[in-house]
Design brief:
This protein has 275 residues and is an alpha+beta fold. It has one domain: outer membrane lipoprotein receptor (LolB), chain A. 31% of the residues lie in helices and 33% in strands. Strands 7-8-9-10-11-1-2-3-4-5-6-12 form a twelve-stranded mixed beta sheet. The protein is globular, with a radius of gyration of 23 Å. The termini are far apart.
């Protein structure tokens, strides 16, 4: 049978178009990983909700309703968003470290001044500084050395997931206690796992490089370290900061996370994001 000229190419275009549509639909419909944690930091238990997909994460905390942290693993960009105020702050460890040098000098000078005041005046000065977004300036920043993770012999289950306990040490002093998932116990897709590991490394860099500024702003970041295999911690206890974080649920979600700032939101310095 004689073929009609031009028919085969049209079938080919149709076939590849359908194949592309199926592929795009499959990518779009890819489920995200959803993790729920319980956070306790001296003010009672609250929830911490994380959704991760395609290398992007969205983190919400019951401790601060209306706030979200967006993080992109591929670009290493993070934003803290205040939805009620329609503000956002860019979290950049390098830039925050530069700002932290100036803040560290300010903190030192103010600590010296505050130490000479009576309790009533010190409280009034602290209240004024908190109004400027600078809290806890009368609490000296404790500097510690490099961190390392040392695994123990203890194992347990968190949310039904087996994990192995390890101590985060600075010198011989314990900074925190982790329970690290047994190999691939969470069963996460590789891109989601890599994004979560990248987020932890980002927070580690933030805690180390910008600690004076972070402390001055009253933000609590636990001091943690990851092992060489980058297995994910699913429980954390930081005794020094009275902070506990425990995984309670892992599931899939149809939501897709895209790192895009809402229209009409204004950039503000980190110190003003809560105001």
């Amino acid at each position: 049978m004689k073929r009609t000229p031009g028919l085969a190419p049209r079938r080919s275009v149709t076939y590849w178009s359908l194949l592309l549509l199926v592929c795009v639909t499959g990518i779009t419909a890819k489920a995200a990983t959803e993790l729920e944690f319980q956070l306790t930091d001296g003010h009672g238990p609250r929830s911490l909700h994380v959704i991760v997909s395609n290398g992007h994460l969205r983190l919400q905390s019951g401790a601060q309703p209306g706030f979200e942290l967006y993080f992109s693993a591929p670009t290493q960009r993070a934003y803290l968003i205040n939805h009620p105020r329609r503000h956002y702050a860019h979290l950049d460890p390098t830039q925050l470290e530069k700002n932290g040098v100036a803040v560290s000098s300010l903190v030192g000078a103010l600590q010296n001044q505050l130490s000479g005041l009576d309790e009533g005046r010190r409280t009034r000065v602290n209240d004024f500084l908190k109004g400027l977004g600078l809290g806890k300036l009368d609490t000296p920043t404790k500097h510690t050395g490099p961190l390392r993770l040392v695994m123990t012999t203890k194992r347990r289950r968190v949310a039904g997931i087996p994990c192995h306990e390890g101590e985060v040490l600075s010198g011989n002093e314990r900074q925190s206690l982790l329970c690290v998932e047994e190999p691939d116990a969470l069963g996460l897709p590789l891109p989601d796992r890599q994004a979560l590991v990248a987020l932890i490394h980002f927070f580690m860099a933030l805690a180390e490089s910008a600690s004076p500024l972070i402390t001055a702003l009253g933000i609590t970041l636990p001091r943690i370290a990851l092992g060489q295999d980058s297995a994910l911690p699913i429980a954390l206890t930081d005794d020094q900061q009275r902070l506990q974080l425990t995984l309670t649920r892992v599931s899939t979600s149809p939501q897709i996370v895209k790192l895009s700032l809402p229209n009409g939101y204004r950039a503000v310095p980190l110190a003003l994001i809560t105001h």
